[in-house]
């Protein structure tokens, strides 16, 4: 990781994640913490970090879909308090799992191709578990 990646990661930590968590709180009605496994993002060039904006947009949309009414907000609050993001260079490792009130999402943001769960895929998966 070079200086550019370090600066971008710090900017995301200090500016983007707090703003993103505020958006999630606005949609869900409660705090949802976003936890990023930084080592899996900064081990590469800037692309995985830059692509976090796309992931954040999908996550915000997923929360909005689930929390469209009070029933959804209450159900999500009982099952989700943290979203944990991991990056991988292996497309076969792309996955999502909801356990212990944490939604674990593994994305493949490293290569020229991009593999991530869409807002609808995440919403469908989580909704079945609520």
UniProtKB/TrEMBL annotation:
The lineage of its organism: Bacteria, Pseudomonadati, Bacteroidota, Flavobacteriia, Flavobacteriales. It comes from the Bacteria. This is Uncharacterized protein.
